[in-house]
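Hello again, I could really use a second opinion on something today. Take your time with it, there's no hurry, and the full record follows here:

___
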Amino acid sequence: MSWNIFNRYSAPKKSVVSRTTEREFGREVKRVESLDETSKKLYKDTKRWMESNAALSQSEQKIIQDLLLNPVCQSEAQLNEMVTEWEKAIEKQNLHSKELNIVVQKTMADPVKRLNTIFPSIQAALKKREQSLQEYEKSQAKVEKQKNRERTGQNVVKLDLSKKAVERTKLEFDSQNQALSEDLPKFVEGRIEYIQPCLESLIKSQVSYNSEALKIYTDLEDIWKTSKDLSEMKSQHQQTLSDIKALSITVD
């Protein structure tokens, strides 16, 4: 969303509204603008996080599939058994990962997206206020100009009509200005009450997800330990690596 219509607050210009009033109103507009940018960034980051979470699960599945298709894994029964158990663990983990993304979508992404839909309405209201202020200034300038004219019957009638136009445009502007001056601060201050439950739900879902992940991989480690002593496997791995380095094709 473009907020360029508010650049008028920094420009020196004679106005029917005091500079102090416009400066204070401009500060509230800047706060809304900052919230708009932050909210949009939060939504994008949340979606990226969900995509990364899904990509991590897919990467783990790809590694396991590559291992299971590897001739070494297929020929080594014990290694195949370990990778198969890993695959089962990943399947459980993926279910929790999908559940996590669903929770994050409902408790974080969707609420922030709904918040983002409000900003265009605020911008429309601010544009309407700006237009009302311009009409008010034009009608006031017209009165000032007509005051200097000769007081003929026709000019007196025109002046009277112009004064009524000033009253009308002033009432319209004051109404819009008062409503926005009251609502903008309330809207900005309400951001904490709105987003805090979302963050709490996000944190709780993360705790639940990571607790389940810890349990799944702890169980997997226990299964691997019963399958083969890890220290023995490490020793065998080191021996195999030494044998490979001893091959003539690996000599520098």
About this structure: The longest helix spans residues 153-227. The chain is about 85% helix and 0% strand. The two ends are 61 Å apart (CA to CA).
